[in-house]
Amino acid sequence: MDLIQTLTANYMKPELPEMNVGDTVRVTLRVKEGSRERTQAFEGTIIARKHGGINETITVRRISYGVGCEKVFPVHSPSIVSVETIRRGKVHRAKLYYLRDRVGKAAKVKAKVN
Predict the structure, then answer these.
(1) Please, what are the domains in the chain?
(2) Rounded distance between C-alpha atoms, residue 39 and residue 43, angstroms
């Protein structure tokens, strides 16, 4: 087991921001189209965090033109340039799947005031 942990430690990103379920984040990822490469941002609310270590993923949800859009991002993927936390959310659950059924103001997460 120590051999696996040693090998995966090389591929993990050390400088990840603190992000929790309910936070609004902007994930910037590298997109390759043919021979060109560009960066694209996806901004939304984290509704789930799964797994751990090298396999950790976050599910980010946003409403785009009135349609809900979710993407699952592997946190330690080399295609992810950065993850920045825009707003902290105040939630009591580990998974916010109930937001899928909500529309408008009901789909908002309260901001955490420190």
Answers:
(1) 2-102 (2.30.30.790)
(2) 13
